Amino acid sequence: MAKRDYYEVLGVARGASKEEIKKAYRRQAVQFHPDRNPGDKEAEERFKEATEAYEVLADEQKRQAYNQFGFAGLDGAGGHDFSSVFRDFEDIFGGFDFSNIFDSFFGGRSRRGARRANRGADLRYDLAISFLDAAFGKKEEISFTRHEACEACRGTGADKGSGKSVCPRCRGSGQVRRSSGFFSIATTCDHCGGAGEVIERPCTVCGGRGLVQKVRKLKITIPAGIENGKRISIPGQGDGGTDGGPAGDLYIYVSVQPHEFFERNGNDVYCAIPISVSQAALGAELSVWTLEDSHQARLRIPPGTQHGKVFRLKGEGIPLLQAPQQRGDLYVKVLIQVPTRLSARAKSLLAELGQLNGEEQSPRPLRLSELG
């Protein structure tokens, strides 16, 4: 297979500076390194090809010979000496942490092989509550499944009378070291998972995990004023940890169901009520429903109230989450309902009212400024 032009391999122009060549090689090495592409022969070849190209182009004398005579200018050089690349390793990759990449591929365990406590996973519970329960709070019992320390092995994962021994593959270090070119990479031992030790006989109850699944019931308090989509955090009620690690947390995500009559905006509540033509014209004193069934608020409708007028009832809204003694307001919109069925007497009275008010038979359009 014919060799590719070194500049083409690194993707740089022939007049590229040494710094540009370094950056180009850095990108290629990160992308095609064998530890990042295990079992990929093509990636391994690309990595070797990029390293060879850099070894030549980073050396001024070799680069000049290559520019003048191509690959023939490199004949007799005794093969490629990657030691120059190795010496420049910190310069090339100084700003890049390979360990973060390789840890992510091989489990991210401790590099020292010491078995360390791991915190348990957090859990999510979705809870649907009513509009009024969100407004005034309530006590609720929930049931959920979580992982807890196995009682049979006390969370160790080892069967009774058994224990743990040094991992025969990594000899207790938790790491295995592989060499690839001028790289020497320590990766997490796949036999012990980086723990440095293995269980001799796994627990028959938990299968060596140290955790078992259980259903738990928990009484929780939903605070007054909670909004739709908010979450309640309960520390230590998530999955149990391993090797003595703490349990995770339980997060309860609240979904508030809509109300038939009321709509919420922050801590304020909005509703609409119907009033008659005579109530709007003459005024009235009304009893208005509030969020509390046992309580009705008095609303004064002044004479001449127009359709769509909004009235504010202070302190009749939803309690503030952080200060339940304070509440938002209730906004009431009045909608004038015109009767569709009239007695003869009612029709006569309305006709008389129209004459007294001098109702126009050809009204002009209202100015936009006159619209409420």
Report on this model:
The chain has ten helices and 15 strands. The longest helix is centred in the first third of the chain and has 17 residues, at 41-57. With 372 residues, the chain is an alpha+beta fold. A four-stranded mixed β-sheet has the order 10-11-15-14. A three-stranded mixed β-sheet has the order 1-9-8. It has a two-stranded antiparallel sheet with strand order 2-7. The chain has three domains: 6-96, Helix Hairpins (Orthogonal Bundle); 123-256, Chaperone, DNAj Protein, Chain A, CATH 2.10.230; 271-360, Urease metallochaperone UreE, N-terminal domain (HSP40/DNAj peptide-binding domain). It is elongated and about 115 Å long. The model is unreliable at 95-114 (pLDDT under 50). The protein has helices at 6-10, 18-32, 41-57, 60-69, 83-87, 89-93, 98-105, 131-136, 277-282, 344-356, and strands at 123-129, 138-149, 164-166, 175-180, 183-188, 197-199, 211-222, 231-234, 250-256, 263-265, 268-276, 284-289, 296-301, 310-313, 330-337. 24% of the residues lie in helices and 26% in strands.
Quick overview of this protein structure:
With 372 residues, this protein is an alpha+beta fold. It has ten helices and 15 strands. It has three domains: 6-96, Helix Hairpins (Orthogonal Bundle), CATH 1.10.287.110; 123-256, Chaperone, DNAj Protein, Chain A; 271-360, HSP40/DNAj peptide-binding domain (Sandwich), CATH 2.60.260.20.
Q: Specify the CATH class of the largest domain.
A: Mainly Beta
**Spatial strand arrangement across the major sheet:** 10-11-15-14
Overall pLDDT level:
83
Which structural category do the helix and sheet elements fall into? Answer: alpha+beta
Secondary-structure element string: HHHHHHHEHEEEEEEEEEEHEEEEH
Unreliable residue runs: 95-114
Tally of extended strands? 15
Q: Overall 3D geometry? A: elongated
Span between termini: 83 Å
Tell me the radius of gyration: 39 Å
Give the total of domains: 3
The CATH architecture classification of the largest domain is Ribbon
